[in-house]
């Protein structure tokens, strides 16, 4: 039985993670929190792991590139940050 030459220790996206990604073509940054279906609320950045976006990025690592079809057009994004989210409550900004 052969041993792998390289062990991948990269942090992978999982439920409960805050994920930041970048669309270079449109020069836009995005961030979402991956949640279970009961907490799904896209307008607050809470994305179910069963959703199109959630299932597309689950298991990816920082610096990984992924593609999505948005309104019939292929878009390419890069994962820029993955962190554990201590609270999955939507952030409220007070002016």
TrEMBL record:
Pfam families: GreA_GreB. InterPro entries: GreA/GreB_C_sf (IPR036953), Tscrpt_elong_fac_GreA/B_C (IPR001437). Transmembrane segments: none annotated. GO terms for molecular function: DNA binding. One of its GO terms (biological process) is regulation of DNA-templated transcription elongation. It comes from the Bacteria. Residues 11-83 form the Transcription elongation factor GreA/GreB C-terminal domain. This is Transcription elongation factor GreA/GreB C-terminal domain-containing protein.
